[in-house]
Amino acid sequence: MTDPGTSGDGERWADAQRPGAGHGWGERDRLLVAVVDYGAGNLVSIDQALTTVGADVRIAKRPAALEDAAALVVPGVGAAGPAMRRLARGGLLDAILAWIAVGRPYLGICLGLQLLFEGSDEDGSSTFGVLPGRVQRLRDAPTLPHIGWNQVEQRCQHPLFAGIPSGTDLYFVHSYAGVPAPVAADTVLAVTTHGGTFPSAVAQGNIVGVQFHPERSGPDGLRLLANFVAWAGGR
Fold this sequence. Notes:
Strand content: 25-35%
Structural class: alpha/beta
């Protein structure tokens, strides 16, 4: 783990992605990002946000829509069981697992992050099984669901958070969160406290995921999405 306040690649990445710099949001070649539509995502907001930061967006309802995309975003709200059934019915479940397995860039938002784990305590469903661990109900939460702005404390550097200070407030809507198994503890990029502390961002190789909604988190959320697009384009 690296202190997010230290200098290095993260700072150079932040400089490169600053609006108005050589690779500002509207100045890089536009990356084709497939956004999965399985009936459980705020697709209008994520489409608009990704377009704003310089991506071309394709809403993907079938596996063929993923074929020539450079990056994949799985958004979502709701429970794991219905989401897994919808993905399987549309043929998207196998396509997403194949996408991840060959090392292509993936961003999971809210439920799209939770699905990366082995299963969910919310309804007992098995999920992608890409990250060791389970989705658990928020512990000692003063209110559920956890709705609103809350601080995201970074545990280590990653291009996803370039230019975003640790402790930045971002927007959450959820009652459950993924908890990595001890063997995967180093996948945690950031944590947030709502009663107990839970992982609010994870990364492993070509996979990144956030529990908050960057498309609803104002300029810092747009910055994170711009960072993802740039990171995906550089892989």
